[in-house]
Amino acid sequence: MSTAPITAPGGEATHLNCSGLLCPLPVYKAGLALGRLAPGELLVVTTTDPGALEDIPAMTRQRGDELVSVDRQEGIQVFTIRKGQGR
Amino acid sequence: MTSITRRGLGTDLSTRRVDDVRDLLPNVDNPSPLVRVNRVLAERDLDLYLKLEWLNPFGSIKDRTAAFLIDGLERRGLLSGRELVEASSGNTAIALAALAALSGTRLTTTIPDGVPEEKKIILRMLGAEVWETPDDLCPVDNPKDGAIALARALAASENGTRYAATRQYENEDNTAAHHETTGPEIWRQTEGRVRWFVAAYGTTGTVVGAGRYLKERNPSVRVVGVEPEPGHRLPGMKSFAEASEPLILDRSVVDHDIVVSDEEAYETTKQLWRAEALMVGPSTGAVVAAIRQIPVEPGDLVVAISADSGIKYTSYFEEILGEEGRPRI
Q1: Using H for helix, E for strand and C for coil, what is the string for A19-63?
Q2: Do B157 and A62 touch (CB under 8 A)?
Q3: What is the ipTM of this complex?
């Protein structure tokens, strides 16, 4: 999995590029990436599959993470997620 | 990988000598064994035979499926230079990973996260990439098929150039494997006397493919599909109360659906180990337990599929054993 450090609105973040991947791949990869973060750290996920607009917020609720923001522009969605206290 | 540099003695199945492990794949001339069950279900007046698929080279009935799936991809020119991807509870993936390695490619498998660790480790030993997948991966749709959904997404990624999907749940090559091998073997091994054919539902390829063949030979053969209860712990089996029915499921072939609980399946598995010295996996216990519910006539010959051995499920067995077999102090 390819992740990279970036700066997000909430501070330093890890970036996961899921462009071109169909659901449920973005959810799966985001789950793996969050599993490698410490509680409170940020993950920014970029997706192009519109299914992620439903799946990623649902996943964050299910996992107990915080969905900080969702930005949509020209077929791209950018989710900023703060890892909760869970897995 | 070491390339083959010398010719061997040649394959001779009469002496069980083969020059390539794939020569051990089962077919009507090299059938998996059919073994009579003499003690379990002794209260029923029937002749029960188990077809021991765990004696196939990669350890399960899925050896047949995997060989046909790969052949199908090669025949259609869909394999060249691509990796394989498949959703599997382990056995198909194990056989695909072994055959893929021999074909110079590799397997990525999406595997439900409830599958025993033993299977995941076997897959990694064979060089496969293992994506453990929660059944409820898709939080919105929440079908009980997360591994299948993930395999489909992988196959469609990178414009379909990286992966060749074997799609065992919808690929008629799966059914054909059992129509062309499992069914004819059973017909020949029973001298056409088989009256009931019983197998577990998973992809449904075995039930439909072998069942169809046997009905073609004798329309009075009864075909039974065995299903677990929802929330079950019987790897490889599918409850259609919680999972989608595979596209290859042809219900016109099936005469009876029998639902079996985990408790019945594991208890019968234990009986098969201890009374018959057959070290079968839990789905075999489910299949044999189901036979208690079918309306056999006296003397009927029943063939049931023992899809795999219990060696890959020892961590599950440890749970059901509790303190059994430990010294009493």
Answers
A1: CCCCCCHHHHHHHHHHHCCCCCCEEEEEECCCCHHHHHHHHHHHH
A2: no
A3: 0.74
pLDDT at B58 over 90: yes
Positive/negative CA dihedral, B39, B44, B46, B52: negative
Q: Decide if B146 touches A, using CB distance below 8 A.
A: yes
Over residues B63-76, mean pLDDT: 96
Q: How far apart are CA A40 and CA B140, in angstroms?
A: 25
Which among B274, B292, B272, B296 is positioned nearest to B282, based on CA atoms? B272
Pair B144, B243: CB distance under 8 Å: yes
Domains of chain A with bracketed CATH: 3-82 (3.30.110.40)
Number of other residues whose CB lies within 10 A of the CB of residue B74: 13
Count Cβ–Cβ pairs < 8 Å, chain A vs chain B: 38
- pLDDT greater than 70 at residue B85: yes
Per residue in A18-74, pLDDT (tens digit) is 998 888 899 999 999 999 999 999 999 999 999 999 999 999 998 999 999 999 988
Strand B196-200 and strand B107-112: the pairing is unpaired
* pLDDT of B309: 97
Alpha carbons B166 and B173: distance in angstroms, whole number:
9
* End-to-end CA gap in chain A: 18
Cβ B139–A62 below 8 Å, yes or no?
yes
CA angle, residues B60, B61, B67, in degrees to nearest 5: 100
pLDDT of residue A4: 73
